[in-house]
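Morning, I've got a small favour to ask if you have a moment. Here's the protein in full, and shout if anything looks odd to you:
***
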Amino acid sequence: MKEQEWAGPEALCPGWQEEEVSDGEGPEESGHPDPTAHAYEVLQHTLRLEGMPRTRDRTDQPRAGMGMGGTGMGPLTRGGSRPHAPHHCLAAGSGPLDMTVCILGSPTAFLPVLLEGGTRYPGAMVLCLAPAWASRVPSETSPGSWSLLLSRGVSFEAGGCTALEEFVPPRRATYVTGTFGSEGGWEAELARDLDCPTGGSASLTRWLEDPLLSRWLLSTRAGLPVPPTLAFITGLREPLPEEPEPPGVHLVRLQDPQGQESLVRDEVGAFLEGSSMQPYDQ
């Protein structure tokens, strides 16, 4: 995966240093043609709404990548000294770090986790907004697995402070999660078969976002009770696992949804009057 030349946050988010931001549509609705720039805009917009300071650009002071020969002790100036951070922000990695929690994708879904993690372990939480900011290399400890290395990221610190940073050499992730929305997305691809714990996958996300599938699996494979469920499905739906219909779940297959009003009405009536719904009667 070839990495494009980094042009700084101004290229990602024009006007990011301006104090005033015009009202109107948020970055989620901006339709920005550059996904990385769009994600950076979303991050700045979200931080602003939370009353947090803007992300500082520290890419001119590369940090040693923890776990890849570096100490994780923060950025170095050209003279080898460590710059002082503003009084309201701790320097990222101001103490030795033995972990890197990497969040892949959208900054909004995990913002509370990033902010709390930055307060408890400044510099350990790193947000990766683009596939070019990370790479996969064969694991040195787990044959057949991969290590995720971060060359760039947004680190979170105490007080809601954030910094855009370069990691030289790259920083190895020790825990990975993110917005694994679909198979084939770059977040899911980067998190596949890693040698560190991961907080999800595209398949798990698909199961959790599908109430029928999740209830089906919980009932048939885990033996857990599920809420009474009446589901109307068509041939367009992905097939369910090859198990008998589980208790509490009733499927009605519609070959053609058009002209099925009477069938749907009868099935809903029978379901509401059935024994499975009796505990819910008022």
Q: What stands out?
A: Residues 210-276 form one domain.
